[in-house]
Amino acid sequence: TQLDWLDKELKASGSDWKIAFFHHPIYSSGGRHGSNLELRAQIEPLFLKYKVDMVLQGHDHNYERTLPIKENLVDQAEGITYVTLGGGGSPLYIQRPNEDWSAKFLPAYHFAIFDVREKNLKMTVYDKSGEVVDTFEIQK
Predict the structure, then answer these.
(1) What's the predicted TM-score (pTM) here?
(2) Residue 33 annotated as catalytic
(3) Is 15 left (phi over 0), alpha (psi -120 to 50) or beta?
(4) Do 54 and 65 form a contact (C-beta atoms < 8 A)?
(5) What would the pLDDT profile of 106-134 be if each residue is shown by its tens digit?
(6) Active-site residue (options: 23, 33, 61, 110)
(7) DSSP 25-56
(8) What is the pLDDT of residues 7-35, one digit of tens each?
């Protein structure tokens, strides 16, 4: 039922930007959980089919940003960037073996601010002291 709903919503979307967000990460090299492969098999095909621009996820208590990924491989042309924003207060996780698709990993308390203007999306990530720890930009 949820997959049917997601398919319907993504298909009907006329938005310039498609950003999905949910709890369990489908691409993560962090902590105790890592990537949820069952969930990935179910929803990544829909994200690729409807050209989702970015996926925000949680669950792992760390910050991680991937390179654009398509089917577990870096793909700059058709891949999707996945961002784990899980540094909100619980004990932090360390990185498991680094994956080729992991662009930035930090076991740090953090928050992110997004600035979306027409064809430009910019994400700035700050640590708890307010220092910038990562920036990322997508241009269409």
Answers:
(1) 0.94
(2) yes
(3) beta
(4) no
(5) 999 999 999 999 999 999 999 999 999 99
(6) 33
(7) -SS--BTTT---HHHHHHHHHHHHHTT--EEE
(8) 999 999 999 999 999 999 999 998 778 89
